Amino acid sequence: MHNGTFATLEAVLRHYNDVPLALRTYDVSQLAPALRATYHGDDATINAVLETLDFRVRTPLGLTDGELGELEAFLRALTDPAARDLSALVPARVPSGLPVSP
């Protein structure tokens, strides 16, 4: 996801299928080694996070493996093949003068 917690779409979908379980069983080895020490997976932290979540995220969806696979296939079908390589959109320069790397 956006912070590196999950490397695949499948992992994101499994997380949202049952957020409480995903939080309690998260495998910190999925994180880059430099980030592992920043993970707070103790019961108090997880409980505090769960208490602040909207009930719609706290409540498990209960999707089967087949349903998760179908959902993943659907989401992948929404990606325009042209969006897979956006390197042509990288500007040659920016107003700040900072270097631009493709």
Please provide the count of β strands: 0
N→C terminal distance:
21 Å
Beta strand %: under 5%
How do the helices and strands follow one another from N- to C-terminus? HHHHH
Helix content: 40-55%
Mean pLDDT: 90
Residue stretches low in confidence (pLDDT < 50, at least 5 long) are none
The major beta sheet can be summarized as: none
Task: Briefly note the structural class of the backbone.
Answer: mainly alpha
* SS summary, helix count: 5
Q: What's the gyration radius in Å?
A: 18 Å
What would the principal axes of the Cα set say about the shape? extended
Structural commentary:
By secondary structure, the protein is mainly α. It has a domain at 9-79. 41% of the residues lie in helices and 0% in strands. It has helices at 9-17, 19-24, 43-52, 55-58, 65-77. The two termini are 21 Å apart. The relative contact order is 0.13. The mean pLDDT is 90.
Main attributes of the structure:
single chain, 102 residues, mainly alpha, 0% strand
Topology:
Elements lengths: L8 H9 L1 H6 L18 H10 L2 H4 L6 H13 L25
Brief digest:
This protein has 102 residues and is mainly alpha-helical.
